[in-house]
Each structure stands twice: as structure tokens, then as C-alpha cells.
Amino acid sequence: MPEAAPGLQGPPRSTFRARTGYGLSGSRTRRSVQVMVRGIRSEPGVYALAIGASAVFGAVTVGVSKAIGAVTDQVVVPAIAGDPDAQGRIWLAGLVLAAVSITLAASVAARRVWAGMGVSNLQAGHRASVTRQYLRLPVSWHRAHPTGQLLATASADVEAATGVFNPLPFALGVVVMIVVAAVMLLAIDPWIAAAALVVIPLAIAANLVFQRYMAPAATRAQQLRGSVADVAHESFEAAVLVKSLGTEAREERRFAARTDDLRRANVDVGVVRAVFDPVIELLPSLGTLLVLGVGAGRVSAGAIGTGDVVTAAYLLTVMAVPVRAFGWVLGELPRADVGYERVARVLDAEGSLRPGTGTFGDAGSRHESRRESGQSDGQPDGQPDGQGRQGRQGLAVRLDGVGVDVRAHGTDVTLLDGIDLEIPPGSVVAVVGATGAGKTTLVSLLARLGDPTRGVVRLDGVDARDLAPEAITGAVAFVSQTTFVFEDTVRGNVLLDDHDERGATDDENAARDQAAWDALAAARVDDVVRALPGGLDAPLGERGSNLSGGQRQRLAIARALVRAPRLLVLDDATSAVDPAVERDVLSGLGERTAQPPTVVMVAYRMSSVALADVVVHLEGGRVVDVGSHAELLARDAGYRDLATAYEREATRREEDA
Amino acid sequence: MVQGIWWTFVLAVVGAAGRVVVPITVQQTVDTGIMADGGPDAGRITTLVLLSAALLLVAGWCMSLVNIRLIRATEAGLADLRVRAFRHVHDLSTLTQGTERRGGLVSRVTSDVDTISLFVQRGGIILLVSTLQIVVATVLMAVYSWQLTLVVWAVFVPLFFGLRPAQKRVNLAYTAVRARTGALLGAISESVVGAETIRAYGAQARTGRRVDAAIEATRSAMVRSQKLVAIVFSSGVLVANLVVAVVVVVGTYLGVAGDITTGQLLAFLFLVQIFTGPVQQATEILNELQNAVAGWRRVIAILETPVQVVDAGDDAVPSRRGPASVRLEGVRFSYPGGPEVLHGIDLDLPARTRVAVVGRTGSGKTTIAKLVTRLMDPDDGAVRLDGVDLRDVSAAHLRERVVLVPQEGFLFDGTLRENMAYGLADHVPAEDEAELVGRAVAELGLDDWVSGLPRGLDSDVGQRGEALSAGERQLVALARAYLARADLLVLDEATSAVDPATEVRIARALDSLTAGRSTITIAHRLSTAEAADLVVVVDDGHVVEVGAHRELLGLDGVYARMHAAWLAQSR
């Protein structure tokens, strides 16, 4: 068996993981450093180039002041004074300065291209890892997390986590600039150097205070952005309801309230920025004034010349903007921490369903033989391959003392308890019970969409928890109450593979299409598909909006049948399907194959129930009775009440009339 | 308001003026302090330094005020924009909503607006101050040498002209990034919303590959846009530095010709720095501006999408509450880009009637329900409520009178009680809500079910109601619609996932509770049709039979055959 489904193998693009997981630890500063270091480490080549270019920029920027000084002394001043040699060098001076300009511009372009690539790559890597997790974590985890929040993590949080990498290479280049400038200033005079450089620790201190105020404000704004997205997402999903009840105004108020919270949080962030930005901008200017004051003293002491004061002042002016890059980095860090933590929370999430590695003894041989004959092409298991239909016996299902509890508001609620069931291969079982009796919980265990709290679910004698996910999806097809339709063609929705993307031959494609048509015909939805423009190639809108409820359900059944499952679980999957069609589909199952699959269905219709070999009557999470329809009618009063509801109602009406 | 803007502007001018304090101080200190006749003048230097420090503090304080004022104003405006776009999405017909992924619509009221908000916070103010600084620097440069000022501008003007087409391309690139991000969100939302199906079929690899493709498309669009930005920005850097070379060459020749002194030329070089700094910053901010504009356009595009189902509003024909009659006259309908699904429906449904609409799946039953509740308008013909064309009935009034219970009722993440109370009119006080909900549950005979839930009416239903089964969700949706007390209740297979005993119980409860009101039930179980006053049989977009259950049985036509099949299956 393959270890993991194709496409999920190997580490994602960026491995941001520390030994202890993705989460950050330690003080805020330590965490911030971790975020930056992990990012740079995951894209080492790109960042080497970006930081290198930035270092060239830093050195050349300081060099510009040196070049202008040299040009002034050797060309401008003597030329204007009338020196013909100097006059002859005017163009040369211009060329030197132009060459410096080009170097500077090239280093800026290089830095930005690589820095931009770094951020894009990091975002792509985060997004890939986050979606991997979404696809890996169990259904129960998804139910516990709002869709809007999960989407925000993949978008806004990822952007927040990587925003700091935009100014980071620049800031690192500025370090080089400061070092070069410090050397130059020290060469002039230690006092001037001290006066000029005292600004830098002050600037860093101001930025630290800034960060302390900014962190909580940025956190709150980021959280509120997520919650605004939550409301918008939920509200748009509810569009039909909102329209049919005319509650647009109420939705607007709900959204406006959340938006107003976000507005206030954004203003808070803006105010912190508004107060600190001028302070941080002020520091180099005050530094220049300090240099002037100190410089004047040194000039009168005869230690340095006037030109040295001007050079030092000029250097500070040139450095004023680049030094701000530290501010940009520090300003982004709180947001980056918050965004990164939210991304890390998803990446570190542990699903309660630990995948097993086992296989079904006999059923596994299909995969083994394929592998041995060199045909393993990374095709996901359970895909139609034309030969799966033969020699696949129905699955034996056995539940021993199964119970399911869920925690709600600190108390355990029992959904299922003490379920013992034995379902022989190839049999058709109907699970019947009142709404809320635990039918869905029961049948979802068979596809291992969840695990029981107590007891064991055995498929062909193997504990479902020991089976590899591919072993289960290859043998069990689960059709849920509500059909999820992918935004894809009919073919894509039925086959759930990447058609034409793997260089299949025409014959293979034809076989694939035939399998899809067969399944659609078995689900009695082939006529509907044939009527769609494009047939199998017809695109289905978001969530299948161009199909009726019954058509969607039949499509979902076709999706299950095409896999020739050994166990077919229908969780009231035919509620919107015409009874006649439902009967055709169910009775057709046995005709399709020599060895029919085991079928477990949640059903209400007595026609469907009558097709079952065995009926399981569930009430309040417990099995009340098991037997044939006739047996239960005879001995189970609760069952009789359910089964004859329509009949008794019709009789009652006739008596009334 | 205008006064407010001018006051902000004045503060911004003072703030921008702060940027030239240092160069002027440097020049003054050197010329009149350090190089003063008779050696450095300590007193004058101290005065100059302290004076400019004070000026800097004032300018900084002004900048703070400007920032705060701008942020307050823009955030208020953006919040308003967000809410208006959100409302407009709801006002668009459900058809329009089908054309774009919901994830995309969400991004228009969230991340697109966030882009603008972040631009204002980081770049907006810098853009304003930079512009002012450019003006101030130009004036000062002209004081020293008008010829060199012309030279500086002559070097920069081509840059400005070159920037326009470049920014157009940058704009396109950013738009592409936003569009691909929208598509990416759509792809990721499938992996989240379709979690159960993906797991049940082991479709993780396939879904993963699709998301990966969307991620890569977004990444390459981002890299492309940043390359463009890098080229544009670095050409700004190039020009800003080349201008120094040009000034040195031209200035020296001017000096040789005697038009300018060495001191003036050096001072001018200092001023060029004050000029080029903000020009460079402005080019960068302009790029970010493009990004914000791309977001802005997408929000505005939503607001400019015309509403197809237009509210009659003030032109509405007044009508009174009370039992509602419905008439369909020659109604034809087709979904966008699809074939016609209703081919001229004529129907007369009198007030106080319980109507059942039956037919095979895909026959057009649900479309009729959507047209009667005006989720969309017919292509041809009219739907009339008490004789008034629905297009002439105000939306608010229509929603009071007609309520639809769809097959898959949406539940909000909250408690059972909150979801049921959602259908209550806004003016119902909160304390009455609890009582009304409780009574509705009792009247519909749902007591047993509710008391079996972990926390009764206070049980959480989870995201989209996923903590409940499909049947339970339908019970909540039914109670919610029942609480709305509409004159006409349209039930679109609203109990399809409920067990027979419960369905019969609810149907009976609804019958007595809606006595004297009108109901239209789209039914797939013919038990509903048996109990109805009037049965409408739809087949392939046509009404083929209308009449009471017994009459239709007597016709021995489509209905009689359906009913026979139903009997065979249900008993």
C-alpha cells in the first residue's frame, strides 16, 4: 500500500517546523526572531541574493557621500576657481557619479525582486502546508472550526505572517550601511561619531516601545478581520434563507456591528502608528542637530574641519530613511507573530483520528498485484480501473459494544451506546429510527469518519482504526445526507480524479468515461447529464447550484457506485429522489456485479426498507430490535409506529371525511 | 466637514515643513555659526540648534494629529463601504450569487477593503506629505538657481511620464493577483466545506493538487507583479541619483560661466536630496496605491452590479395582510445559460387553500416555489399575490406575507433557540422570544425531540447546523418559518429528511395551525398530496393536472400513476 495518497507525499514547499512543532516559544523577542529565521532558512537561496543585494545597496549609499565629497574637492571647486585640468574632468566626474547611480539602482532592483520572490514563496509554502492540514484533519476537527476562520488563516493570517519579510532584507542591508558609516565617522572623529551614532540605539529603543503598544492593537485588529470574514461567509452561505425571510436588514446590522469593532481596532492601530511614526522620524533629525552642536565645539577646539561636520550631517540625512526600515520590520513583527501563531495552530493541530496502516487480507491483493505488475501509477485507491468489479466480495461489518460520546459544554452526551451488530457480506441492512436517534452517527463510523468512544468497529474482521485510510476509501463508499458538489465537470465530480492530466491514452479515457456513464446510468441520472450542454464535460456551478436536490443526490450515488465499493453506506442519501428511482437504484445494485456489495442505508421509505434483508431499529442511541421488516412489524411497537405512519394517517383522514 | 479637511491640510503643511528644517539649519549653522567671522559663534549655534529642535517637535506633533484625523475619517468611510457592499450582495438575486464563488464575494467585503485600509494606514499620509515636500523643495531650489531647478525637473519629467504606462501594467498585475487570490480562496473553501465528502472518497490528493495549482498561480502572479514594481521603483532610484550627476556637471559649467558660486552649488546639491527623497517615496507609495485601487475597484464593481430583482420600494402597490391568493400567468423561466425549465405556467391558487405541488425531480417544482417567493422574476408572464404583480409589491411587505422553507434550510452557528427566533420580526422583544419559541415547539409537537437534546433549546447547532442531522435541521427551519407567521407558507420538500411518524405529526400540526392561511407544499411524499385541498401536477415544465386528490385519482392520469407507485412503496 502506498504510505500516503499521491500529492501528499514528501514535505511541502517550506518546512517551517522546529523539532517541537510549528508553534513559537519563549519571549516575544525570541518568537519574533524565530519567525524571521525560519522564514529565511526555508528560502535560503532567494534570501542570500536579496540580502546580498541589500548589503551592496547599504555600502554604495554611504559611498555616494564619499564620491560627492571627492568630486567636489577635486573637480567642482577647482573648476569653478578656473583650473583648466579640473574643467576637463567635469564629464569624467559626471560619469563616475552616473556609474554609482546605476550600481545603486541595480542593487535596489535586485533586492526587491528577490525579496518579493521570497515573500511569495513563503506565502505559497504556508498556504500549501495549511491546506494539507485541512485535508488531513478529521471531520470532527472541521466541525469545531468556523469555515470563515479557516479561510482567514489561509489568506489574511498567512499574509500577516509573511508581511515582515518585505522590509527584512532592506533592514539587514541597512546594518551594513550603519557599519560602513560608523567606520567612516570614527575615522573623522570619535566625538562626532558618538554624536551621530547615539541616535541608533535610541531609535531601536523607541521601536521597542512602539512594538509593545502595537502588539495588542495589531492582534485585536487581525482577530476582528477574521471575525468579519466569518460573518460575511456565514451570511452569504445563508443567502437563500435571508432572502426568503427578508432579513437583509438584520444581516446588515450584524455585519455592521462587527465591522464597527474592526473600524475601532484599526483606528487604535492607526493612532499608535500616528504617535510613534513622527517620534521615530524625529530621531535622525535630532541626531543631525546634535552633530552640529558637538561638531561646532570640535571645530573651535581645532580637532576637525568644517567639511567634516557637513559630511557627518550629510551621512545622517542620507541614512534617515533607510534606518526607518528597522521601524518597518519591528512594526510588522507583532502582526507577523499573531499571523504565524494562527497558522502554526492549524499546522500543529492533532486530529483524533490516527490513520492506521493495515489492509484487508484479500482485498489488499488487488493493490499488491497492481504494484507487482508495475502498474502502480500513483492513482488514488478506490478509483475505477475497470477490473475492480470482479472478485470483490461485499465487506463483512461487525460492531462490538460500540458507544459514542461527545463533549458539549463540559458534559458528555451519549449519542450511541452498547451497539452490537453483525452484518454479513453482501447483505442489505436498513437502519430505521426517529429523527435524532443516532443513525448518522452510527453509519459514519463504518466509513471511519469518526471513531467510537467505546467498542470496536470491524471491517472484514479488522479494527477500522488499524486500517490505512486508502484501504477504507478503496472499499467503503459513503453517501451523506447533503451532497457536496465540487466546482468541476460532471466527470470530475463522479470520478474524483484528474482527468486528462496524467497523459492517459484515448483508450484509457474512453474506459474512464464508460465507467462514469455506467455509474450515472446505475444512479438513474444519465439522462439528466446527457441533457446538460457538454454531457460529462458540463461544468457544475459552486456546490452544484445548477442541479436540483434529487439530481445532486443521484450524482453522489453515481460517485459512490463508480468505485465499485465493497460496502455502500447510504445515509438517507435518497431523500430528494423519487421513490421509483430509488427502488431502481437499490435493486440494480445486485445486478451490476456477481458479488453485490454490502449495503447499509438509513431509510424512511418502507419501499426501501422492504428491499433490506435486515432492519435495525435504533432509538435514543440504542438498538431496539434487529430482524426482517415483517418480524419487526410483528413484535416492535415503536417500529410499527414509524412504518405505518402514512397508512394510519390516510386511514384517519378517510375516517374524518 | 470641509473645515475639517482644511484643518487637516494646514496641519499637514506644517508637518511637511518640518522636513526642510534640518537642511536649512545645517546650512545656516555652517555659514553663520561655525564659519562666522571671528571663529565659531557658540551662542548662535546653540540658538539655531534649539530653535530647530523646537520646530521639529511642533512639526512632529502636527504629523501625529494629521495621521489620527486621516485614519479616523478613512476607517469610518471604509466601514461604511464594507457594509454597503455586504448589503448589496444580499440584494443581488440568488442567481447573481451563483455566478461567483462565495469565497470571492467574501473577499470583496474583507481582504479587498483591508488592502485599502492598510494602504491608508501606511502609505496615504506619506503620499500627502511627500507631495507637499516636493513643492517646498522646488521653491527653495528655485531661490538658489532657477536654471538648475529646470534641469532637475527636466530629468524627472520623463520619469513621471514613463511611470504612467508602467503603473498601468503594475495595476493589471495587481488585479491579476487579487483575482487569483479570490480563485485560491474558492479552491481552499472546497477543501474546508467539502471535508466530509473528501474524506469519504479519499479525494485529498485530487483536492490538494487543485489547491496547489491555485496556490502556484497566485504565487507566480505575485512574483510577476513584484518584478514590475521593482523595475518601476529602481528606475526612480536611478533617476534620483543620476540627477545629482547631471546637477554636478551642469552646475560646474554654470559656475565656470560665472552664473553660480561654489557655495550656492553645494547648497543646491543638499536641496536636491530633499527633493528626490519624497519623489522616490512617492513612486513606491504610488505602487501600493495601485494595489489599493485594485481592491477598491473590486468592491465598487459589486456595488455597481445592478440588482435584478428590484424592490418596488415607494412605487409599491399597497396590499393588506390576510389570507393570500396566488396566480401565475403564462410564467416562463430559464436559469442563466440554461434551457427553459417552465414553459408557460398558468395557475390559480385561491386564498385559504392547502396546495400540494407534485411531479418528478427536475420537473420544475422548486422553480415554481422560488418564483412565488420572488427569489427571482419570471422571464415572461407574471406571478400575482392577491392580484398584484410581485414586482409591484414592496420587498419588506412580501417577506412579511410570504415565507419559503427551503429543502436545505441554513442554520447559523448558534443555539437552537436563536435559530428558531431568526424568523421573528425585529420588533419582537427578546423576553418574548423565548416564550414564542417555546410555544412554537410545543405547537409543532417537537417537545420530545427538543427535550432529548443535550441542552434542549440551548443546544448549539454548530457550523451550518452540522451538529444536527439533516432531518433535525429541517425541524429547526420549519419552526423558524412557522414563527414568522406568514400569510402564505411555501414548503419546498421541507420535511424530506424527517422520519415518517414525525412528518405526519408535523403535517397534522401545520394543518390545524395554518387553518385559514395558505400553504403551498412542494412534495415528494404523496401523503402530503392526499391531505391537500388542491393538487398541482407538474411535468417537464408544464402543469398537466390540477384538482383535488380524489378528482385526480379519478382521471386515471399522471397523478393516479404516481399515487399507485407511492402506495406500493410506502406500505
From TrEMBL, chain A:
UniProt topology in membrane: Multi-pass membrane protein
GO MF entries: ATP binding
Matching Pfam families: ABC_membrane, ABC_tran
InterPro entries: AAA+_ATPase, ABC1_TM_dom, ABC1_TM_sf, ABC_transporter-like_ATP-bd, ABC_transporter-like_CS, P-loop_NTPase, Type_1_exporter
UniProt keyword annotation of Transmembrane present: yes
Transmembrane segments annotated in the record for this chain: 46-70, 90-110, 168-185, 191-210
Compositionally biased residues, Low complexity: 375-392
Residues covered by the ABC transmembrane type-1 domain: 48-335
Ranges where the record places region Disordered: 1-27, 354-392
Domain of life: Bacteria
Record-annotated ABC transporter domain positions: 397-645
Main location: membrane
Keywords from the UniProt entry: ATP-binding, Membrane, Nucleotide-binding, Transmembrane, Transmembrane helix
SMART domains, alphabetized: AAA
Annotated PROSITE patterns: ABC_TM1F, ABC_TRANSPORTER_1, ABC_TRANSPORTER_2
Ranges annotated as biased composition (Basic and acidic residues): 364-374
Subcellular locations according to the entry: Cell membrane
PANTHER family given in the database record: ATP-BINDING CASSETTE SUB-FAMILY B, ATP-BINDING CASSETTE SUB-FAMILY B MEMBER 6
Name of this protein: Multidrug ABC transporter ATP-binding protein
From TrEMBL, chain B:
Subcellular locations according to the entry: Cell membrane
GO molecular function, one term: ATP binding
Primary location class: membrane
Topological relation to the membrane, as annotated: Multi-pass membrane protein
Membrane-traversing stretches: 42-62, 125-144, 150-166, 228-254
SMART domains: AAA
Tree of life domain: Bacteria
InterPro entries with a match to the protein in the record: AAA+_ATPase (IPR003593), ABC1_TM_dom (IPR011527), ABC1_TM_sf (IPR036640), ABC_transporter-like_ATP-bd (IPR003439), ABC_transporter-like_CS (IPR017871), P-loop_NTPase (IPR027417), Type_1_exporter (IPR039421)
Gene3D superfamilies on file: ABC transporter type 1, transmembrane domain (1.20.1560.10), P-loop containing nucleotide triphosphate hydrolases (3.40.50.300)
Domain ABC transporter residue range list: 326-565
UniProt KW Nucleotide-binding keyword: yes
Keywords for this protein: ATP-binding, Membrane, Nucleotide-binding, Transmembrane, Transmembrane helix
Residue span(s) of domain ABC transmembrane type-1: 6-291
Signal peptide boundaries: none
Transmembrane helix listed as a keyword: yes
PANTHER family: ATP-BINDING CASSETTE SUB-FAMILY B MEMBER 10, MITOCHONDRIAL (PTHR43394:SF1), ATP-DEPENDENT PERMEASE MDL1, MITOCHONDRIAL (PTHR43394)
Protein name: Multidrug ABC transporter ATP-binding protein
Organism: Paraoerskovia sediminicola
